[in-house]
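## retry 2 of 3
previous attempt timed out at serialization; input unchanged, resubmitting
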Amino acid sequence: MDKLRIEKIKLITSMCIFGTIGIFVRYIPLPSSVIAFARGLVGMLFLLAVVFIKKTEISVEDIKRNLLWLILSGTCLGMNWILLFESYRFTSVATSTLCYYLAPIIVILVSPLILKEKLTIRKGICTVVALSGMVLVSGVLQTGMPEINEIKGILFGLGAAVLYACIMLINKKIQDISAYDKTIVQLGISAAVILPYCLLTEDVAALPFSGKVLFMLLFVGILHTGVTYFLYFGSMGHLKGQTVAIISYVDPVVAVLISVFVLREGMDIWGIIGAVLILGAALVSELKS
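## retry succeeded, writing output
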């Protein structure tokens, strides 16, 4: 098997793993902030171990030069996880994921103001199509206003999308630093930001930290953060940006399939059409002409 195919398999594997995180978070009986903290901490420690084993040096100079943007992106990353995990608790994994993948559309809308990029006709059409898909997924046209919990889940998912869009924009400012250095610092900062929030808002001593719960936290931190980032960054350096953009949409597709067929969270024909519109528009918006 040639090296390029191996790298594609690694990237697809990482996306498939990313797509399954909802099913694990759904069954961890802990607050979203605690799960997010554990994910950041364990993921950072895992990647530090990988760097140590590979005998790769961490560039302190590169980190110092980008420190402000790393702090901002790490903070957004931690809060993004909290909102996404909260969304899982109030609505289906499919709806949460589809709300989350509106992030590229949000970037399109704010890019003319922040990055001074021109809003092309193609990207304008993609925006309208994606927002139309979101209306279908929400169920407003079929059944009227959704229940309060469903609305909460959608709002949390959209909040996570806004923060993910912020991360995408901030990462454009981070220059000349290795992907591993950047991710290790971002994960560490996300954990450092979330920790005081957990201590202030949760009675940590009263939380049910059983052996099973601790195992699931380690599992999510190692597999869904450490291993996936290792595979993701290890492969993307060998693949074209457009290839990475296309394969990245394996993640939401897997999440939607798991929501429908594993968690048995129903999705009618209009929801399916909405999902296709959102993912298709977001994907097309990221590709070159």
